[in-house]
Design goal:
The chain is an alpha/beta fold. It is 41% helix and 20% strand. It has helices at 7-19, 22-28, 33-47, 63-91, 107-120, 136-141, 206-212, 227-235, 245-253, 283-299; strands spanning 52-53, 60-61, 95-101, 124-128, 147-150, 159-173, 184-185, 195-197, 221-223, 241-244, 258-262, 268-276, 303-304. Strands 3, 4, 5, 6, 7, 10, 11, 12 and 13 form a nine-stranded mixed β-sheet that branches. Strands 1-2 form a two-stranded antiparallel sheet. InterPro entries: LysR_HTH_N, LysR_subst-bd, MetR_PBP2, WH-like_DNA-bd_sf, WH_DNA-bd_sf.
């Protein structure tokens, strides 16, 4: 029998096993759900057997699917290691990756990604530029950083962007707050509330920039630099806040606060990696972006795909 197996098929099966969901697996491998389903159906037609049980919760692979999944788990790490080795042979192993971060909540996923990157690129000096950066792209242009995590891909001749992911911003309030009764919050719901935010300008906060200020709504503010402090203030009825769903989910599960959708469609934020155009072909910089995307979709709930740059 002529084999049709390709690495993309194995990556798809590994993503499906990791996520247990066609939709989330499609995001992980940057396909539409229909394209992923087509891939699987093609394999099933070729081998004349199903690879997993439809409608099973949690998803269960058939014996045929388990055999291909075993191959994926054996082969994919070897392929990734060989690709890194070849890159280091051709381009050299040494380098530096100084990260500048615009987003206060980035560290929820950034630290795990750094943990994956370090053993794969041991000769690359990886560091975070100290402190929160209001203009991380300026650090790239002044050679004080090598990669910046930003929320907007603002066109600049010297800068290129790598899309990371989009995520939902949710409104949070105390469980006994009046807004807890509303499933979806609109801009006017914030008018009479104290909005608790990070101490940054409004043009760096998606809720004011995208929803409130365009409608002439500018509620009073209270500031805190720490996500946990914002959650504590909200839980004690000092105000309301808008934060990424993944960052508040543990506190929602403990009933410290409740989370509600903001707007229709839901308020979304985006993250991009910015790098100097002259560095856009540095393999380890692009590999770091791939790791961030992969680890993000593997560990954070509520992510969605951004289109390729």
């Amino acid at each position: 029998m002529e084999s049709i197996l390709e690495l993309r098929h194995l990556r798809t099966l590994a993503a499906l096993a990791d996520t247990g969901s066609l939709a989330v697996a499609a995001q992980r491998v940057f396909l539409t759900q229909s394209a992923l389903s087509h891939q699987i159906r093609a394999l099933e037609k070729h081998f004349d057997t199903p690879l997993f049980e439809r409608k099973s919760m949690p998803l269960r692979f058939t014996p045929a699917g388990e055999r291909l999944l075993k191959l994926a788990h054996e082969l994919l790490p070897l392929v990734a290691a060989a690709e890194r080795d070849l890159t280091q042979i051709v381009h050299g192993e040494a380098g530096q990756l100084r990260l500048a971060v615009e987003c206060h909540t980035c560290f929820d996923w950034l630290m795990p990604a750094m943990g994956v990157f370090r053993p794969q690129w041991p000769q690359v000096e990886l560091d975070i530029v100290s402190g929160f950066q209001a203009d991380p792209v300026a650090l790239l242009l002044s050679q004080r950083a090598d990669l910046a995590i930003v929320s907007e891909a603002v066109p600049q001749p010297e800068i290129v962007y790598r899309p990371l992911f989009a995520y939902e911003m949710v409104g949070i309030c105390a469980p006994d707050h009046a807004l807890a009764e509303r499933k979806i919050w609109q801009a006017e719901d914030f008018a009479a509330e104290t909005l608790i935010t990070y101490p940054v300008p409004d043009d760096m906060l998606d809720l004011p920039r995208k929803l409130l200020l365009p409608q002439g709504i500018n509620p009073p503010r209270r500031h805190s630099e720490l996500t946990i402090a914002i959650v504590q203030l909200v839980a004690s009825r000092r105000g309301v806040a808008a934060l990424p769903y993944w960052s508040v989910m543990p506190y929602v599960e403990k009933n410290y606060v409740v989370a509600r959708q903001i707007g229709t469609p839901p308020l979304q934020s985006e993250l991009y990696a910015a790098l100097r155009r002259q560095d856009q072909d540095r393999i380890y910089l692009n590999d770091f972006c791939d790791i961030v995307r992969r680890e993000g979709f593997a560990t954070l709930p509520g992510l969605s795909r951004l289109s390729a740059d």
